[in-house]
TrEMBL record:
Allosterically activated by ADP, AMP, or fructose 2,6-bisphosphate, and allosterically inhibited by ATP or citrate. Beta-D-fructose 2,6-bisphosphate binds at residues 444, 501-505, 539, 546-548, 602, 628, 634-637, 708. The lineage of its organism: Eukaryota, Metazoa, Chordata, Craniata, Vertebrata. Its cofactor is Mg(2+). It comes from Hucho hucho (huchen). HAMAP family: Phosphofructokinase_I_E (MF_03184). It comes from the Eukaryota. This is ATP-dependent 6-phosphofructokinase.
Length: 752
């Protein structure tokens, strides 16, 4: 099968380009770059270049697009599209992978609809013959959305958005230190002319006092309300205020709200020392985040599979992300919904605009919640993970909003049985979102040996519900408390666990709080390590990652960093496999490849240690490359949480507290809470597309307790993908690939 490809306007899209090229070559296609977007397609010549495996090497860490991007007025005309069709037919290109926003994708669909007519014109003008027209009679198109604004309906996240959030949060974190010192108010403008996603999510991630977005303008009188909130924040002891404004923010009458308007308002009404910062194009640049690299790689491979399965009867589709699953949606349905958002905003039907945005509404509902019973205790268990503090802050503030009295437990269950429990109030968690580690303190102590003392503390403080945030130990703790209900009635209360561990080894969830931050640390370190060898002779790096027996960090980190080989416990290997990997890498290094990267999970094999593998590669690679090792250690566990972990922790904690509130109401009878059913001791996790509450007792059968990992792990399906992109000849399971499905429009219940 002969297939060819094309990439268009994109942002932080090199990982997608790399995945499309290498997956295309893997399936036997001939792959082309088209430089400078549609302009390159119209002009042809050197702009259309055949791609090779080596031509996409060392580009994962590079921002922007190596194949260029340009606006093209000529392609908007029929004559321009006729020229573009001629250039494609000359090279036998009949499959396009288009990476861009709704404008680029709409243009591609129009091109596809006109294709047969364009071929007829080319034949009439004697530019091509009938045979060429017949051989190129069908044009297939698959789109991937590259946009930092996350303004395309049908996908939870567009490629480039997470990297932009990283740039914003880096700036906000830096600004908060100076604002704290000088007791200042900062008004920040972020991109988003028609979409407030960056503003809203960065506001959640940094704990901003106020946010203004175009889809949901503030109610009339917002100026007084905002100033009152800023004043209350200062009266509670805060030394700074952060206000985030999307560049397209408007009021209910459609009048623009600028950062200067907001600054003048704060100065005139409150007299606060106020500064304005406009982030501008810094949001578009920089190194892509780990999330974007993985997302783009998955989307690129899915795009190739979609083109392989395309026929003349299938509509053009766009590859999207729904929860943690790649899906294919009809391109023009998504484009139409995206355009309907702007139409609703123009008609000042802002509620409809928010609903059309889809899951965006979840963030909006969470932010609205943060505006002041039962007693609910919150504690961290296990090793610290970045994002734990964001989850605690969210739980405390949502709990207070719901009318509960919130209690913080220091040092996990060790602190619980020792009575280290105190009420925690709204202001106590100010500024926690961006803090790494665990401010509450966390220990690995399990409750089994201290059940009587823990039950006593529950009675003393009249604890009616429990929220446990942590990793595998937290899962074990909740199981032990559930099983102790038969002997201790005090544990018959609603209990919920949020997965928070860098290892991502908790059953019942695809993702855990803290794992994304750790992945970013691994990827950034790998980028620097590879760069350290720039200009030297050929070199291979052996990197050891954490994770216990779970190979998530090594495997997914290897995919994001462009590793050549990954060794994990879940996929046993022997000396013959090691020898084969060395030989494969040696052959690659004899070409133009200068650097190799091998990741090893710390417990992948007790005999084939990092030292052993390094020595083996050094010996077998003599004369071709030398070898260096690096044990990343606890640097994977520290640092400020990534935007993803801040927001993931914030959203699932809010959802958990709302679940606890429902369970408390259901189980409250005769003046006391009594909850002893399986569904009152749950883990909240992401399963493919949805967030699900799962009874912990039902997860026992899914768990390998000896090795502290789930028996089935979704990310193992990405491991062959990493091998394919590293030029291994291996099989790829397409049973989980997306199928074309209709676009759904979210209609939240009135109660929401």
């Amino acid at each position: 099968m002969r297939m060819n490809w094309r990439e268009s306007v994109l942002i932080s899209m090199n990982a997608a380009v790399r995945a499309v090229v290498r997956m295309g070559i893997y399936v036997g296609a001939k792959v082309y770059f088209i430089h400078e977007g549609y302009q390159g397609m119209v002009d042809g010549g050197d702009n259309i270049e055949e791609a090779s495996w080596e031509s996409v090497s060392s580009m994962l860490q590079v921002g922007g697009t190596v194949i260029g991007s340009a606006r093209c007025k000529e392609f908007r005309s029929h004559e321009g599209r006729l020229k573009a069709a001629h250039q494609l037919v000359k090279r036998g290109i009949t499959n396009l992978c288009v990476i861009g926003g709704d404008g680029s994708l709409t243009g591609a669909n129009l091109f596809r609809e006109e294709w047969s007519g364009l071929l007829e014109e080319l034949v009439q003008q004697s530019l091509i013959d009938e045979e060429a027209a017949q051989n190129n009679s069908e044009l297939h198109i698959v789109g991937m959305v590259g946009s930092i604004d996350n303004d395309f309906c049908g996908t939870d996240m567009t490629i480039g958005t997470d990297s932009a959030l990283h740039r914003i949060i880096e700036v906000v974190d830096a600004i908060m230190t100076t604002a704290q010192s000088h007791q200042r108010t900062f008004v920040l403008e972020v991109m988003g002319r028609h979409c407030g996603y960056l503003a809203l999510v960065s506001a959640l991630a940094c704990g901003a006092d106020w946010v203004l977005i175009p889809e949901m303008p503030p109610e009339d009188g917002w100026e007084e309300h905002m100033c009152q909130k800023l004043s209350e924040s200062r009266s509670r002891g805060s030394r700074l205020n952060i206000i985030i404004v999307a560049e397209g923010a408007i009021d209910r009458q459609g009048k623009a709200i600028t950062v200067d308007n907001v600054k003048d308002l704060v100065v005139s009404c409150l007299g606060f020392d106020t500064r304005v910062t406009i982030l501008g194009h810094v949001q578009r640049g920089g190194t892509p985040s780990a999330f974007d690299r993985i997302l783009a790689s998955r989307m690129g491979v899915e795009a190739v599979l979609a083109l392989l399965e395309a026929s003349d009867s299938t509509p053009a589709c766009v590859v999207s992300l729904c929860g943690n699953q790649a899906v294919r949606l009809p391109l023009m349905e998504c484009v139409q919904m995206t355009q309907d958002v702007q139409k609703s905003m123009d008609e000042k039907n802002f509620e409809e605009a928010v609903r059309l945005r889809g899951r965006y509404i979840i963030c909006l509902c969470v932010y609205r919640t943060f505006l002041c019973s039962f007693n609910v205790a919150v504690l961290n268990v296990g090793a610290p993970a970045a994002g734990m503090n964001a989850a605690v802050r969210s739980a405390v503030r949502v709990g207070i909003t719901e009318g509960h009295k919130m209690f913080a437990v220091n040092d996990g269950f060790e602190g619980f049985y020792k009575g280290q429990i105190k009420e925690i109030k709204w202001g106590d968690v100010a500024g926690w979102t961006g803090q790494g580690g665990s401010i509450l303190g966390t220990k690995r102590t399990l409750p089994a040996k201290h059940l009587d003392k823990i039950a006593e503390q529950i009675r003393i403080h009249n604890i009616n519900a429990l929220l446990v945030i942590g990793g595998f130990e937290a899962f074990e703790c909740l199981l032990q408390l559930y099983e102790a209900r038969t002997s201790h009635e005090d544990f018959c209360i609603p209990m919920c666990m949020l997965p928070a561990t860098i290892s991502n080894n908790v059953p019942g969830t695809d993702l855990s709080i803290g794992a994304d931050t750790s992945l970013n640390a691994i990827v950034e370190t790998c980028d620097r390590i590879k760069q350290s060898a720039s200009g030297t002779k050929r070199r291979v790096f052996i990197i050891e990652t954490m994770g216990g027996y779970c190979g998530y960090l090594a495997s997914v980190g290897g995919l994001a960093a462009g590793a050549d080989t990954v060794y994990i416990y879940e996929e046993p290997f022997n000396i013959r496999d090691l020898q084969s990997n060395v030989e494969h890498l040696t052959e690659k290094m004899k070409t133009g490849i200068q650097r190799g990267l091998v990741l090893r999970n710390e417990n992948s094999n007790e005999n084939f240690t990092t030292d052993f593998i390094c020595q083996l590669y050094s010996e077998e690679g003599k004369g071709v490359f030398d070898c260096r090792k690096n044990v990343l250690g606890h640097m994977q566990q520290g640092g400020a949480p990534s935007p993803f972990d801040r927001n993931f922790g914030t959203k699932i904690a809010a959802k958990a507290i709302q679940w606890i509130s429902r369970k408390l109401k259901e189980s409250y009878k005769d003046g006391k809470v009594f909850a002893n059913t399986e569904d009152t001791a749950c883990l909240l996790g992401m399963r493919r597309r949805t967030m699900a509450f799962q009874p912990v007792v039902q997860l026992k059968d899914e768990t390998d307790f000896a090795h502290r990992i789930p028996k089935e792990q979704w990310w193992l399906k990405l491991h062959p993908l990493m091998k394919i992109l590293a030029k291994y000849k291996t099989s790829y399971d397409v049973s989980d690939s997306g199928q074309l499905e209709p676009v759904t429009r979210i209609r939240p219940k009135k109660a929401d």
